[in-house]
Amino acid sequence: MEDRAASTAGAAVELGKRKAHESAILQLSEEFAVEHAAMKEVYEELLDELKARARIKEYLSIFVVRAIRDLFRPAVAGAPRRLDPALAEKYRNLLLPRDG
Question: Fewest CB within 10 angstroms: 2, 14, 43, 96, which?
Answer without folding.
Answer: 2
